[in-house]
Amino acid sequence: MKYQAPKGVSEYFPPRSRSFEWVRESLLTPIRRAGYQLLELPVFEDTELFTRGVGASTDVVSKEMYTFEDRGGRSITLRPEGTVGALRSIIEHGLDRGTLPAKVFYSGPFFRAERPQAGRYRQFYQVGIEAVGTEDPALDAEVIALAHAGYRALGLTQFRLEITSLGDSQTRALHRVDLLSFIDALELDAATKARAELNPLRLFDDKREEVRELMSTAPLLLDYLSDESRSHFDQVKGFLKDLGIKFTVNPRMVRGLDYYTGTTFEFVHDLLGAQSGIGGGGRYDGLMEQLGGQSVSGIGFGLGIDRALLAAEAEGVVEKEAFVTDLFIIPLGAPAKSVALSLSDELRTYDLTVEISFGDRPLKSAMKNADKCGAGYALILGDAELASGIVELKEMRTGATTSVSLSSLVSTITTELLTW
RNA sequence: GUGGGCGUAGCUCAGCUGGUAGAGCACUCGGUUGUGGUCCGAGAUGUCGCGGGUUCGAGCCCCGUCGUUCACCCCA
């Protein structure tokens, strides 16, 4: 094999590509039904948009971006996440000056130059939404509910929702001071100290027992929330309870993107190994303004399609429905091929899936193929049929055939197949 | 970026203490005239990831490289 896909990319090909579509559509359906509208975005942006938007100190920006120079000498980066690009587009086209909240969704590939691992790819797929222009805690609850609804639509049960509040900038500043002095008193190795310097919250997420132990008495951001932030968070929790959505408050939750404030959440799946986050998001108070838009808050999420598929497979809930063709036409000879071509062309306008047997295979093999593609009906078109104008329509399931005149075939099939 | 495992036909894998490759599934064709799902028969397919080394000889040993996988890190 001479050529291989670039390292660490996820590819979906038949038959699994069908499951991929199923996951994407299942996640998208609740979103569309909530009135979110499509935002079709470029997969690359000016590098500066990301360094400014998601934060230069984040791992995503500092060591995981695919950045290159285009022919005009501009620094371009393949999008590592969706929010910043979506907001750029919202601002650029004035959506934040229209009806608020502006509610958009997107779906597509994202890129991060990381070491590949189970559930972690260099090109991966996400479904995301952004709702910009209101601080209403009911919106927070709806956004979380939409992700939840998507996972439920897939049939997932072994996942949990963790939420927390990162408060506003003042509460974070106060907490940071105390946290830093707490960490300063700890005995830590150089690498860990360096991480703490970039973002002290990171230490809450450390997987080592010793560090967890040390951090168990660290000051929690949740205890520093301003009255306003606390009230907002309490309302969000209340709405989630009313919705019947189970969650746990995780005051040690850490997100890798700098823009998050207030409500922050994460969906974690139990069967996925190290890369267990299947989706997450949160509120971002200052981001719109920072990117040059209106000074309004927004909230959104990103759901990993790859990981949701992995989770569905791990739980054994992947939709089993195989690829199905309604009618399989087997032409014998050139004149029959011509008829088969126009017949299928017409039938497809009725929303039917119609396939033709190509390559002059022996009839036996062609029938075998009809079987393989799960055809509901098979139709043999030979010289005899063309001469008599009568064809036998064979129902594959039962093997029964019915005689139909070629001239009334389309109306017969459309009434038969569409009513069945 | 760091560390460990693995890399043989499309897929899942076997290959004994080194002697120039096999199974099952899938695929193609056939089991007499134009009909599938079972059964039977026949057939095609691999530079044993790639490069180098040791050896009379390497799929089996050594080094490198690429890919993959698991974990760290990070996150979808």
Which key terms come to mind for this protein?
alpha+beta; RNA-binding; single chain; eight-stranded mixed sheet
- Assembly type of the shown chains? single chain
Overall shape? elongated
**Secondary-structure-derived class:** alpha+beta
Helix content: 25-40%
Q: Compute the separation of the termini in Å.
A: 46 Å
Using DSSP, what is the number of strands? 16
Question: Average pLDDT, to the nearest integer?
Answer: 92
How would you sum up this structure in a few lines?
The protein is built from 15 helices and 16 strands. With 420 residues, the chain is of the alpha+beta class.
How would you sum up this structure, described in words?
- This protein has 15 helices and 16 strands.
- The protein has 420 residues and is α+β, with helices and mostly antiparallel strands.
- The chain has an eight-stranded mixed beta sheet, sandwiched between helices.
- Helix 1 runs antiparallel to helix 5 (137-154) and helix 1 crosses helix 11 (305-315).
- The longest helix has 18 residues, at 16-33.
- The two termini are 46 Å apart.
- The model has no long low-confidence stretch (mean pLDDT 92).
- The structure holds one RNA strand of 76 nucleotides.
